[in-house]
């Protein structure tokens, strides 16, 4: 039975690759809950939302049917399930590709060569769409798992499967032929929930928090002291979000500069800043950035 108590329901994967990152994201958004993997519901104490733990394959349909208002699931799954849901935002984890792979020594060298071949997959809908878009007719061998074994077992001439590092493919003597889809975890929403005034208000509040967490990801807050005369030079080095904050220090002709930098740029940047007069450089993590 669907309980309409004015609270949102967000479906996340019960146990799998997206579970920990999804819980972590929701906690970073300030949601206070105990995740109960074995129970369907995990209520949140400080926000009108309850978590529903489900198999990832079921999430798109449950969101489409309104069993859950929101869902966190791989874009590959939503596409395969052809669910009628609204895509709210990508979440920056669970990155993978849906690819067509062929045996290392296969004579197949282009998509055209897949004509009349057998392709094993757990993604028949996405594969069918792709083949149709390329005007290639092939036999789709639908499996429920271990697709990478199909060519060795001579069940198929090629496979269509998810890869992330590509190790599974390689150890099974396969190589990629083409990419069908690039995917990552995304937040999806039921259309009626999004149109409902009260629910929309909660969804918008949650979205502000999620965007803040996504913006802060990979960023560091940088503080340093510098002589006043170095400000212009340092400002030209700093890739600030807007402009850096400059605060006078008690010591004469000295200032503190504060800014946000990308984690990846940090070490190169720091050497450059030091060479140009900065000292006492402090770097701190950022929880969230609300614009
Ligand atoms: O039980 P439930 O149905 O909920 O989970 P599941 O077993 O169907 O899904 P799960 O937890 O494996 O994956 C959930 C989602 O994570 C997928 O729908 C993708 O969106 C995303 N994802 C990211 C991946 C991978 N990376 C991935 N590598 N899903 C599956 N894989 C498989 C891949 O197919 C290969 O067999 O993992 C294996 C190792 O991959 P390599 O390339 O790193 O060797
Ligand atoms: Zn699944």
Description:
The protein contains nine helices and 15 strands. With 291 residues, it is of the alpha/beta class. The protein folds into three domains: 8-93 and 185-216, D-Maltodextrin-Binding Protein, domain 2; 96-183, 3-Layer(aba) Sandwich (D-Maltodextrin-Binding Protein, domain 2); 219-285, 2-Layer Sandwich (Alpha-Beta Plaits). It has a six-stranded mixed beta sheet. A five-stranded mixed beta sheet has the order 8-7-9-6-10. It is flat, with a radius of gyration of 25 Å. Bound molecules: phosphoribosyl ATP and zinc ion. Phosphoribosyl ATP (PRT) is lined by residues 13, 16-18, 55-57, 74, 76-77, 94, 96, 161-168, 183. Phosphoribosyl ATP binds at residues 13, 16-18, 55-57, 74, 76-77, 94, 96, 161-168, 183.
Keywords:
single chain, 291 residues, alpha/beta, D-Maltodextrin-Binding Protein, domain 2, Alpha-Beta Plaits, 3 domains, six-stranded mixed sheet, five-stranded mixed sheet, 15 strands, flat, binds phosphoribosyl ATP, binds zinc ion
């Amino acid at each position: 039975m669907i309980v309409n108590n004015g609270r949102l329901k967000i479906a996340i994967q019960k146990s799998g690759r997206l579970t920990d990152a999804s819980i972590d994201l929701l906690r970073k958004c300030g949601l206070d809950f105990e995740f109960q993997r074995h129970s369907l519901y995990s209520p949140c104490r400080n926000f009108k939302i309850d978590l529903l733990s489900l198999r990832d394959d079921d999430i798109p349909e449950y969101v489409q049917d309104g069993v859950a208002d929101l869902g966190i699931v791989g874009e590959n799954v939503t596409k395969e399930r052809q669910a009628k849901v609204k895509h709210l935002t990508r979440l920056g984890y669970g990155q993978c590709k849906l690819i067509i792979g062929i045996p290392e020594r296969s004579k197949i060298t282009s998509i055209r060569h897949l004509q009349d071949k057998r392709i094993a997959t757990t993604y028949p809908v996405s594969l069918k769409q792709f083949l149709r878009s390329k005007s290639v007719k092939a036999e789709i061998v639908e499996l429920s798992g271990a697709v990478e074994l199909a060519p060795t077992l001579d069940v198929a001439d090629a496979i269509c499967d998810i890869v992330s590092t590509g190790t599974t493919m390689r150890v099974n003597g396969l190589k990629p032929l083409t990419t069908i889809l690039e995917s990552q975890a995304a937040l999806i929403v039921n259309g009626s929930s999004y149109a409902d005034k009260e629910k929309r208000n909660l969804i918008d509040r949650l979205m502000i928090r999620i965007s803040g967490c996504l913006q802060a990801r990979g960023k560091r807050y940088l503080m340093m002291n510098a002589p006043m005369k170095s400000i212009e030079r340092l400002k030209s080095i700093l890739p600030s979000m807007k402009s850096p904050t400059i605060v006078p220090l008690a010591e004469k002709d000295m200032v503190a500069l504060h800014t946000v930098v990308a984690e990846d740029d940090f070490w190169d940047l720091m050497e450059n800043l030091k060479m140009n007069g900065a000292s006492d450089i402090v770097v701190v993590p950022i929880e969230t950035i609300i614009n």
